[in-house]
Specification:
alpha+beta, Ribonuclease Rh, Chain A, four-stranded antiparallel β-sheet, two-stranded antiparallel ribbon, 6 strands, globular
Amino acid sequence: MKSTWRNALLLTTTLTTSLFAQADPLQPTQYGDFDTYVLALSWQTGFCQNMHERNRHEPDECKTQHEEADKRAFLTVHGLWAGLPKSVASRGVDARRWMRYGCATRPVPNMPEARGSKKCSAPETGMSVEMASKLSGVMPGAGGQSCLERYEYAKHGACFGFDPNAYFGTMVRLNDEFKQSKFGEFLAQNYGKVVTRQAFNKALENSWGSDAVKAVKLTCNGNPAYLTEMQISLNAKNMNDPLDKHSFSQQKNPGSCAKQFRLDAVGY
């Protein structure tokens, strides 16, 4: 069993290294005067559990969810959000309004608003077929009837002039780097179990140092609590480098997960 796990980890590491070598750098062509990004990763089983418990419209990716041999597969991509540009802040926009409206913020960038209830009404992203295939493996809501990738690009990518392949390729790369780390191993080993925030933080620290712990905001739902999402603050200047201790930027809010929570398994 240990040998199988090590072989799977080695294969993932090799694929990740290859993916990183092929990834185009992420560069804004306008409004580039921001310092951080937020990488939003979902614990997909927890996300689906929360949708089910709240009697929300259950997306197709939750209806068809099934067990995976490699439990790291349940760490999925929600989005990548650039921080508030200084040139936008100078027009009277604060961080809260920026996160709510993104590229539709007024007076600038003032692009058409992407609505979460009508994701498929957002324009096509223009990414390549190859990138769409890679993204579908880590963003279950991409394509199909969910159109999460359209919504994310329209709200958080289009106004920066991000090349869509570079934008989504960066998400794929970062997700894989998290999965193939000691932190990813911790998630897989504790699949379906209750973990402490202390142990969770220790896994982050063992992977990238203490600054990584301070960069992560967790969202939990349910009673008893289970993890649904983590938002990681990353330094913009290091975005195109492999993750290391310099990649992370401290954020004030540690989130809603208390001393312990469950890494939920498939099923309700």
